[in-house]
Amino acid sequence: MAEDNWGRWGDDDERGTLNLLTDDVVLEAARSCRSGKVYRLSLPLARTGVPLAAYRGGPQRLSLLTERDNLLGVAGVPDEDGACEDVLILPSHSVTHIDALCHAYHEGTFYNGFPASGFEPYGGATRLGVEKLSGFAGRGVLLDLAGFLGVSWLESDHVIAPGELADCARAQGVEIRAGDIVLLRTGWQDRFLAEVSRGDTPGHTQPGIGLEAARYLAERDIAALGADNSGIEPIPFPAGRPLAVHIEMLIRRGTPLIENMMLRELAADGCHEFLFVLGALPVPGATGSPVNPIAIA
Questions:
Q1: pLDDT tens series, the chain, 297 aa
Q2: Torsions phi, psi for 45 (to 5 deg)
Q3: What is the rounded CA–CA span in Å between residue 172 and residue 69?
Q4: Is residue 285 part of a domain?
Q5: How many domains does the structure of the chain reveal?
Q6: Do 84 and 103 belong together in one domain?
Q7: Shared-domain flag, residues 65 and 185
Q8: 180 and 39 in a common domain
Q9: Is the N end or the C end of the chain the one with fewer CB atoms within 10 Å?
Q10: Are residues 204 and 269 in the same domain?
Q11: Distance of CA 13 to CAs 128, 178, 200, 225, Å?
Q12: Any idea what the CATH number is for the domain that residue 185 is in?
């Protein structure tokens, strides 16, 4: 396989490895459903108690209309009837979210050679915006690294290696195929939420997939990669490798990343293969979007 996917689906391609999710691939994934159980894989869009980056701020839900406003009275609606509405203010990379292919750049360049200078302060990305990802579905594969290694969560300095991915998949009886959406459970999110419930202030240091392991998955032509930590890769970054996994997956391979996923219930049920469905908010030019991914077993 080529070391990157630039030009693989044409010089104007803006979907990257989501091109692998053909109609036949999606139909085959749908046939994997056995029980019909639906799993929500997102955290709540809450102001507190969830992983947030301080510089982004937390999601805010403000009330626009309540039963005390009776704004609809001008339309003849009686006082005892009406509607309530909200205003949502939130960063695009808030809580459970997907990174669009215009999120990260390397040496001034996005995926497929599009220049990072094409990102405008007002208009956003002229190419590779999150709206280009659209909605997608395919075969989801959970690699429960924490469960496989017999721990509640990986240690904060754990860098996931290729052999661990291969051994975990083998132990779980799953094979990673072209077009799969691979989800990694490190247990970090469980640790974060446990610390919050005790009233502690969780640290941001976390385990994640190493560059070699990311390449291992990329060589198997996965369509997307998700994890239960907030950066996919380890934080802080390994020495000399800042943003290495983002550069490898988003920029070189054109593989979207899904961060801060809730994977505990899937792992508890031993559900390692399922139909995966995700829809991003189609905000033109945005670098990412909050998402509520769904797994159907």
A1: 457 999 999 999 999 999 999 999 999 999 999 999 999 999 998 888 788 777 788 889 999 988 888 777 778 888 888 888 999 998 899 899 999 999 999 999 999 999 999 999 999 999 999 999 989 999 999 999 999 999 999 999 999 999 999 999 999 999 999 999 999 999 999 998 888 888 887 778 999 999 999 999 999 999 999 999 999 999 999 888 899 999 999 999 999 999 999 999 999 999 999 999 999 999 999 999 999 999 999
A2: -80, 75
A3: 55
A4: yes
A5: 2
A6: no
A7: no
A8: yes
A9: N
A10: yes
A11: 9, 19, 45, 19
A12: 3.50.30.50
Closest CA to 105 of 86, 90, 127, 136: 127
Task: Give the pTM.
Answer: 0.94
**85 plus 211 within the same structural domain:** no
- Indicate if 74 and 105 belong to the same structural domain: no
Structure tokens at 75: 């339309």
In a domain, 26, yes or no: yes
96's tokens: 């459970």
C-alpha distance from residue 52 to each of 91, 117, 175 (Å): 10, 27, 33
Peptide bond into 242 cis (omega under 30): no
Q: What's the token pair of residue 103?
A: 């999120």
- In our burial notation (b when 16+ CB lie closer than 10 A, e otherwise), range 64-102 reads eeeeeeeeeeeeeeeeeebeeeeeeebbbbbbbbbbbbb
- Cα 60 to Cα 56, 64, 158: the distances in Å are 12, 12, 33
For residue 66, the enclosing domain spans 57-90
25 located within any domain:
yes
Nearest to 259 by CA among 249, 267, 268: 249
Is residue 290 domain-resident?
yes
Tokens standing for residue 71: 């704004």
